[in-house]
Specification:
Layout (H helix, E strand, L loop, with lengths): L10 H12 L7 E5 L6 H14 L5 H13 L5 E4 L8 H10 L10 E5 L7 H12 L5 E7 L7 H4 L3 E4 L5 H12 L3 H10 L4 H9 L1 H15 L4 H38 L12 H42 L11 H10 L2 H19 L4 H12 L11
Parallel strand pairs: 1-4, 1-5, 2-3, 3-4
Helix pairs in contact: 1-2, 2-3, 4-5, 7-8, 7-9, 8-9, 9-10, 10-11, 10-12, 11-12, 11-15, 12-13, 12-14, 14-15
Length: about 375
């Protein structure tokens, strides 16, 4: 499959970028790709980068080589900023701005991709703004963010925006079947429960433990009957999110450490010379920061799953006749719909939205989830403001 083939449900966006890559005279040198999480923002950015780096009339062998280099992030004219931290630092952007001034070495363009551009602070964004105002003639910036509103207005005015739509369950399931060989029934269930988030759908389809953790989190929410039960459930939800984050990062961290030791010339199991220990310490600090973000992202994912649960309950109560996200838990959802009132289901959804806002604002996840679970259980109103 080519880089374009791994995208699903984004035909209009693909067509716009392919036309731009094929016409240097109308080429824009600053792009912004927006779309909901899991819609394929970064995949589209790298497919576009591959087209730009391959040239107008690429040889099939050259295209294949370029695709492999872009996938490995080793192409000499490609620079990537994909942070695992909560924010993108100003020094990282300054380094990219410096690299953007060099002419491409082997390709028609020098391409710079910034994933999660919404993680830049205003001060950091102003550093990037200077590079976008007067870009070198053969440098192309590709930014990715959930929404254009996540960037400062001066940057939005200097980029061409490509908006991605939310793919359907059928489209995501078809991609999992074609690309990853997932059984159709499992692919459809994973796509639905991931709410068409492509990366999460793949994980649910290939990791039974991830599916079990998701089911457990929903069962905890359905089993709350008291304030003390809500507090205990919140504690267990945080534990589930932490376990999920560790499962997602532990293998990657081990591979990173092994690769770092290999690059430093240290044998497996050997003693690290004192002069090289600072390098490993920096790696460990980066991994700790990534772990913090992974837990926060895991908590948010749990909250999104809970939001889908109460959405399903409300649909059953209103007799909407729409497909449930959590079809595999329909009996439990129908029992909850008989116990709760529609007003209580809406109140629970408001409490979850408030909890997501609090976690994003650095409230300790345990406190945010405790308040959410107590409010969602109907014991207290969902106090607070999203303003």
């Amino acid at each position: 499959m080519s880089a374009w083939d791994e995208l699903t449900g984004q035909e209009a966006a693909i067509r716009a970028l392919q036309e731009a890559a094929a016409d240097p005279d109308s080429m824009t040198h600053s792009w912004l790709i927006t779309g909901p999480p899991g819609s394929g923002r970064s995949n589209l950015a790298y497919a576009f980068a591959t087209a730009l780096l391959s040239g107008l009339t690429p040889d099939p062998a050259v295209t294949a080589t370029t695709e492999a280099q872009v996938a490995a992030r080793t192409h000499p004219d490609l620079a990537v900023l994909a942070t695992d931290r909560v924010i993108i630092s100003i020094d990282e952007v300054r380094q990219l701005v410096s690299q953007s001034q060099f002419s491409p070495s082997v390709a028609p363009y020098r391409v710079i991709v910034i994933e999660d551009a919404d993680r830049m602070t205003e001060r950091t964004s102003n550093v990037l703004l200077k590079a976008l105002e007067e870009p070198p003639p053969r440098t192309v910036w590709i930014l990715c963010a959930p929404s254009a509103a996540d960037l400062i207005p001066t940057i939005r005015s200097r980029v061409r925006t490509i908006r991605l739509r939310v793919p359907s369950v059928a489209e995501v399931a078809d991609l999992l079947v074609r690309r990853d060989g997932i059984a159709p029934a499992l692919a459809e269930q994973a796509a639905r429960e991931a709410q068409t988030h492509i990366g999460m759908a793949l994980r649910l389809a290939t990791d039974p433990d991830a599916r079990a953790r998701r089911t457990r989190s929903l069962e905890l929410a359905l089993g709350v009957t008291s304030v003390s039960g809500a507090v205990l459930a919140a504690e267990q939800l945080v534990a589930i999110a932490t376990e999920d984050a560790k499962a997602f990062t532990v293998e990657r961290e081990a591979e990173e450490r092994e690769a770092a030791l290999r690059q430093l010339g240290v044998e497996p199991g050997g003693t690290v010379p004192p002069a090289l220990r600072s390098t490993l310490k920096n790696l460990e600090e980066d991994q700790k920061r990534r772990a913090t973000r992974s837990v926060r992202d895991g908590v948010d994912r749990v909250l999104v799953d809970l939001l889908s649960l109460y959405r399903d309950i409300l649909l059953v109560q209103l007799g909407a006749g729409l497909e449930l996200v959590n079809e595999s838990l329909r009996p439990a959802v129908e029992r909850a719909a008989q116990t709760l009132s529609p007003a209580a289901a809406l109140g629970a959804m408001d409490a979850i939205a408030l909890a997501r806002h609090r976690v994003a604002g650095n409230t300790p996840p345990a406190l945010a989830l405790e308040a959410m679970m107590v409010a969602a259980s109907g014991r207290v109103p969902a106090l607070g403001s999203l303003a």
